[in-house]
Design brief:
With 142 residues, the chain is mainly β. It is built from 1 helix and 12 strands.
Length: 142
Amino acid sequence: MLFSWMRGLPVLTLGDASLVGVVRAVTADVASARVTHVRIRRGRLRREAVLAWEALDAVGPDMLIVRSPAGPAEAPPHRDLLGSRVLTECGEERGTVLDAAFDPVGGRVEAVLTTFGELPADRLLGLGDHALVIRSGRAHHA
């Protein structure tokens, strides 16, 4: 599944299928290549809610099912992977992130799609405010 496909999907409760909100963004820990949280918009006047990935019962192409709509006690800051600059650990520009593919069952990030092509998850080092940092893939650096 792609991160971009998640945006706008409804989030429903497991028991009574009541609407909790719609997906606004997906948060990933790129160093471990895992989706960690889903951020949802709960309506026009309500604030954003954060759900831990483990709180989800099912992720499908047309909705997410959550066991409990209660958010985690503490959620990490959100840095949007989509649209981030891509830099190697040596500072070389490698385009911009267009999307990211992940396993909807386990939340494992499989690849990041950039303007320079596809990056496997094992090249991801970290995501900060400035850019997504990746391994250059070279044995030696100048």
